[in-house]
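Subject: for your reference before the review

Hello V.,

The reviewers asked for a structural picture of the protein, and I figured it would be easier to keep everything in one thread rather than splitting it across files. Below is the amino acid sequence we used in the manuscript, unchanged from the supplementary table.
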Amino acid sequence: MASNPADRGSRGKYADRLDPEFWDYIDRVNSWYPPEIVAAPVVEQRAVYNRMCVAFHQGRPEGVTTSDGGVATASHAIPVRRYRMEKGATAAIVVYYHGGGFVLGDLDSHDDICAEICAGTGFEVVSADYRLAPEHLHPASFDDAFAVFEWVAATSTLPIVLCGESAGGNLAAAVAQATRRHARRAIGQMLIYPSLGGDETGRSYVEHAKAPLLTLADMDFYRRIRSTPGQSVDDPTFSPLKDRDFSGLPPTVIVTAECDPLSSDGETYRDKILAAGGQAVWREEPRLVHSFLRARPTVPRAAKAFARIINDIARLGAGDRVLISPLVGEMAGRPEGGAKDRDLSEF
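And here is what came back from the structure prediction:
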């Protein structure tokens, strides 16, 4: 994954496909990971990841308050962090599941992102610190994600919006599918470059198998490390795209990056929801790669993409028949798959 900032040849076909400021971000991320880290124990990899997250942390916007707590289960407590605005009433609550390949991440790794969602929407945000692999194999992370949803549903009367990034997008989708007939089911879900267990012979998997910051080899590692012996890939709580029923899901927005092997998952998930009579929009952000949210302070494309995501969350939380934010014009040159060609005047 590492690249030499001075060696354009090492960047392959992405040398000119990504903006220079995005390459600065990629090089900064890679500088945290020496080649030998791949053989290091997971606890050491987490330590490096956590230090990197601290270095990228942008602080919390003014007016955002936080409180830490726990969701009790029969065997353990799940740490959660609540974000609220000091002033003003909130209209919805966002349940947020962080990324990290089911191996990395915690309440601190995505703290500023959650705080900015809170400030940008005015909604309360509950961030869930689910159990990680390899210490806790599937379905531990899903069970925790589900438990946090049920706790929010039981302790708040606010409409619920599910939101997840990467591995967290997998969990948000799995929870949405498992709770679609719940009395307090989510009124919307926002999936950010989610890993949904799609067909690895699909478009983006082939085109971007060796993309910066996430490769097929990385994905295979993350899938294997969270799997129990004999894990079925057809389990929808493991791979949401393997579900046989996509009806009854809340209005859904999926945002992916053009140069990401996972982008096809977003497109396929949208199509399955639409085919089942639901409401879904897929937006592929051009000239970006996986994990672009962390690039938002220095990469204008990433900042604009995050602003659109916050706008989408706000509109999902507003209830039925909401407008979805303006779409990226070029849609990576694929109008046949682009949401820009659909009538989104009513959603």
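For the response letter, the relevant points are probably these. The beta strands are 64-72, 77-85, 93-97, 124-128, 160-165, 188-192, 252-259, 280-289. The two ends are 39 Å apart (CA to CA).

Happy to draft the paragraph if you're swamped.

O.
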